[in-house]
Design a protein that fits this description.
The protein is α/β, with parallel strands linked by helices and 246 residues long. The chain folds into two domains: 88 residues, Alpha-Beta Plaits (2-Layer Sandwich), CATH 3.30.70.100; 132 residues, Oxidized Rhodanese, domain 1 (3-Layer(aba) Sandwich). It is built from seven helices and 15 strands. Helix 1 runs antiparallel to helix 2. The two termini are 27 Å apart.
Length: 246
Amino acid sequence: MKPVANVSAYRFVDLNDAELLRDRLFAQAAALGLLGSVILAHEGINLMLAGSHAQLRDWTDGLRRDPRFADVELKFSESEALPFRRLVVKVKREIIRMNQPTIQPQRRRAPGVDASTLARWLSAGHDDTGREVVMLDTRNGFEVDCGRFTGALDWRLRSFSDFPQALAARHAELEGKTVVSYCTGGIRCEKAALWMQREGVANVVQLDGGILKYFECNGTAHFDGYCFVFDERTCLDGALASRTLQ
């Protein structure tokens, strides 16, 4: 039996035709027999789809023919079974809800650190300037319970929209350090980094591609446990294979 292919991706970009785009992307995915979800908003796209490798390539090739998504980074993995039960393409207010309209990553991106550089920093215990590195988990508390970077700050968020309030209460923990915000695939940590910059955190970067990209490059070096995902795989290990919580 051939394994199921999975793809995830996001891109912050101005979309003024989200409803029309929703109809087109749904029709293309349905015709190919794909399952999963695509979220569209004025600020961009977030997707998680499953099918065969050929089906996903057909759909993502079509997506990339739109100049706005030409350079979207795709993250592929495999699973033994379909992790989704239906196909959903929705238009929402935000692709990840923060409730802070001044944060517009489609207009300005926060500085980032790539997965290989971060692994080197964590091995050294400091960044390239010699400053202490602190990992800040921007995911919900139950996701962190599945796994996190060793020693990462966990503010026990109930939802991502709680992040601004949590930062206001814990701002002092970040002073004098290089703060690396991270999440599953990069969406939340990108918004979080912009918010921290806005609130005066001096040295902050996001982990480009999130935990999934880090696993792809480094496995679980400096990471304890697994990465929670919002589908029937539940958690992924360093090889991006599904794991069941004990």
